[in-house]
Design brief:
724 residues; alpha+beta; Serine Threonine Protein Phosphatase 5, Tetratricopeptide repeat; Immunoglobulin-like; five-stranded mixed sheet; four-stranded antiparallel sheet; 33% helix; extended
Amino acid sequence: MMRHSPWLGLLMVVLYFGGITPAQEEVDLGAAALQSRRSLEEAKALYDEVEFARAIQVLDNLLAEFTAWSQGTLPEENEEVRLEGLKLRGLAYSNLGQTEAARADFAAVLRQRPGLKLDEKLLSPKIIDAFEQVRKEVTGLLVVTSDPPGAEVRMGGRTLGVTPLEPLRVAAGRYLLDVEKRGFASLREGIQIEPGQTAEREYALERDARSVSVITHPSGARVLVDDHEVGVTGGTPPAGYEVALREKGLDPAEVSAPLVVPFLSAGHHVIRVEKPCYTSLEADFEVTLEDSDLPLELEPVVLADSRSTLSLQSVPPGAQVSVDDRPVGRTPLEVRDLCGADVQVRMSLDHVGTWEARVALDPTRIQTVSGELKLTLASLGAVREVGVEDPEAEAWDSFLRNVLEAQQAYAGRVLAITTDAITPAHLELFRIIQAAGPRLPALGAELGRRLARETGADLFLVAIPASTTQARILLYGAHREAPDVIPMKGRSPAQVQELRSLLERESLRSMAWSGLLTVETAESDFPYVLRPWAGAPEGTSVLPGDRVRSVGGRPVVSRRELEAEFAGQRPGSRVEVSVKRGGAIVEAVVVTAQTPVFERPGGKDVLINKILADLERLRRMNTDQRLQNLAAMGVGLAYLTSGDPRNALSQGFEHCLLAPGPGISKGSVDYLKGVSLEALGRGRQKEAAAAFASAARQAEATLWRDDGPLVVPLAEARGGTSRR
């Protein structure tokens, strides 16, 4: 039974009694704003019923809620309620003859809203006059003009308008007045607004920026000033430029019209001009304010012609290369005189795969482009009577096209064969599938080769519709006659994504693990360390007998949770762990190991044909001997999973020469050879027993992954000689 930490109860108490969470606070503030609005409406109703004293009582309670807020911090909605409440209370005081109290409320409102007007149709002239008198006592007028006009005016951080600023009512007081216009120096002045008085200010603005014009050879160049794009040159120079341009050795027909860059400040600037197929140019220039009404003309910018070179390599080499659909040779090679921002590069090699991408060009250097070739995946569509309209088949055609659309993560190239491009081999496959009925239709070796040759693909998807919502999806490959069968119920986006995920699943991948051999015991929920794995990197300080309590500060209570914490790490990472050693909690370090991971025989939705194509490609293209051997082991596993022990041996395990040692190693292969030989039956039992005996002698060999089940007890159970 899992034990809960005594801290859990304390945590629940803190969560229950500890302060308001941000979400709760937001809800509370919203509720408070709604209650304030309701109180204001209640006061208005009492005021309309001439219940002035009762209205004042409600408003006193309402306004008291806002006294704790410092100036400028009250939310806008609440501020509107507060000001409306003050105005209403002032009117109520006026109707009761409490003049001073009314004046205080009116003054508070007018300091915030100097231009506020009362409705003269609803209120007596006496109240209107009193309100206007208070306005004169707490506000004044401001008039601002500038030369030139059009300057923005701000006071106290609030924008008032642009010059000429007509008389504007503002609250009396001391302020900072800011006047700004692009291209001119900003002005700031302290200003006193006297009650009932008009403050007038007139400013002569001083220019502090100037326009700059630039022409380029050739036209159509992108211009940046101080790293900010300001435009692209174009057009032709106006009359009067021709003589000067010819004196500089430039053809006016290839020179742009002036590009005007406005409002550059006086002083140092940097201009950059660039255009594809030309060398970019960068230069300094100074802006002065003499004759600042006229643009400063820079010297014409002349760009030198430039071309790019790509050094193309592929993994493996020998791939046929095309650039923008133009064949250029086989890798490795250099392609010169490329022009433009980017090009489409495609590399392909029979039986290995394709790589295709857009490559950005850089004329300043020879760029090395290396492509890892990947397989080609094709949709042959839904089985149909060719030449007969079949909406059901067309719907499944569309489904398969949707599956293929985003397959670049797996496939170097994807093909959707349409009904008007069905090849003879394609048509023959349809006939075989139709003749098979409910049986599994086999793809003959010769037909497989013809399909690969005619379509240029390595793997083929075919749909066999059962209805508008159900179908069998078949995946054929070049290494096996039987297809993988994927039943589909529906053509929803979720089903599309499910099939994509199956096709993108790696057949042989690597991942990090702790490098700790652990078990779970009945004595504790925490994993018990038998020992660090012999193949793990150096640096791990966990000892045999430790109980791992947490990884990276997160508690773990099982082997599954322990390995899940390490699965997302990079191999070789140093991870802090907390262990119980004896009676003490000790901080230790685990340096993550790396393990290959195979698809498990009998695993859900294992696509044998895809695995075989993937791993045979790895064997052809990789120079790393361990990876080649692991790929061979995976090939054997795939054949063994599909019930073909003969090919598992001849195409897989007999080509796998892993060395003895811990984890996936010779012992793993010996055990799997034994299973294959045993499945072949009569005449191979002695060979099977010898393979199991060899596996039983290799103490730390594992299956499926380096932290998988140990081979020894499995081999002994199959009849291998016991080491004990």
